[in-house]
Specification:
The protein is mostly beta strands. Helix content is 11%, strand content 38%. The C terminus is likely disordered.
């Protein structure tokens, strides 16, 4: 089966470069309906994309720019925004212009249809798939899950520790993994936090008596929540002059697994303009049936159930994942 990737994954691969060596290799790729990638150079006044194939020019017409463009279901910005970025496509024809120069007719829409039929529609709830961040909004992240097909990752599914904006975790173009949370009429809903480890997996990196780095996430009347890791936060006593988003140095006073509690003392806080780093994933498999965040001896059960033995595409049940 053909492998399907978010746009940008294929452009520098050897097989992609070999397919665009000359007209003959492009013709063979066209015959095989092979998905290729190259950089879009220009979007003309009619919203056709001009693509640099190396050995020749390629043209993706506006209607072939994405699934739904022709029907008005997708805005033209989906095509315009691809300028100076990799685009995937299938070569549908080789033609000659008035000067006898060969150019290629390309279809990004056909590549997306192939991806939808052979890859996305075969996914199940609980599957772990590749994704690339394409756009960030205060309410969540839009991600490419294959050939430029975009799905949505709500902000409350990004990590257990709450954030104000997805840019605190991700940057545009970042490659990540996601879990399929639900599938309804070809619309796929995603989640991310279940890949970032359980409470026990995260707490293994910390010990009582250590002074460690953290981020101030929330200031309440009863204390300050400090993020130690995307899926782990502790509570410190209130302290004046601190703000959410600040970096913090905190002393670990106590760890109570049965209550998922981490008691902290704030040593210092300071402002720092940091950039998101690549997420650390604890879960390594390709399918997740159940995620249990809480320790076995915990007073509370916090879990997400993706699949059952007799139902491979249920909506997952989930208890709210909150600060520890």
């Amino acid at each position: 089966m053909t492998d399907f990737y978010p746009e940008g994954w294929l452009i520098d691969t050897l097989s992609n470069k070999l397919a665009m060596q000359n007209p003959s290799t492009l013709a063979q790729a066209s015959h095989e309906e092979k998905i290729l990638e190259a950089r879009a150079l220009v979007c003309d006044g009619n919203h056709n994309l001009i693509v640099d194939l190396g050995c020749m020019k390629g043209i993706i017409s506006r209607e072939d720019g994405a699934i739904g463009i022709k029907e008005g279901l997708v805005r033209d910005i989906a095509v315009i925004s691809r300028v100076n970025r990799p685009v995937c496509f299938i070569v549908t024809a080789l033609k000659k212009d008035q000067k006898g120069r060969i150019y290629a007719i390309l279809s990004r829409k056909d590549a997306q249809i192939k991806c939808m039929n052979q890859y996305i529609r075969n996914r199940k709830v609980g599957d772990v798939i590749r994704a690339k961040i394409t756009h960030l909004e205060p309410f969540g992240a839009f991600v490419d899950i294959g050939c430029g097909i975009v799905s949505f990752l709500p902000i409350d599914t990004i990590s257990i520790s709450r954030i104000e904006h997805p840019r605190e975790r991700f940057s545009i173009g970042m490659d990540i993994k996601v879990v399929i949370k639900s599938i309804e009429n070809d619309r796929i809903s995603l989640t991310h936090k279940e890949l970032l480890g359980t409470w026990e997996e995260n707490i293994e990196s910390f010990s009582v008596g250590e002074t460690v780095a953290g981020i101030v996430r929330s200031i309440e009347d009863y204390g300050v929540f400090i993020e130690l890791a995307p899926n782990l936060a502790g509570l410190a006593e209130p302290k004046e002059g601190i703000r959410p988003g600040q970096q913090a140095s905190v002393y670990i006073k106590n760890i109570i697994p049965s209550r998922m509690k981490i008691k902290l003392i704030i040593i210092d806080t300071f402002d720092y303009d940091y950039k998101p780093t690549q997420p650390k994933y604890f879960f390594k498999d390709e399918h997740m049936g159940k995620f249990i965040y809480s320790p076995k001896n915990s007073d509370r059960l916090i879990e997400t159930i993706f699949t059952k033995d007799d139902d491979f595409n249920p909506k997952p049940t989930e208890k709210e994942l909150t600060y520890t």
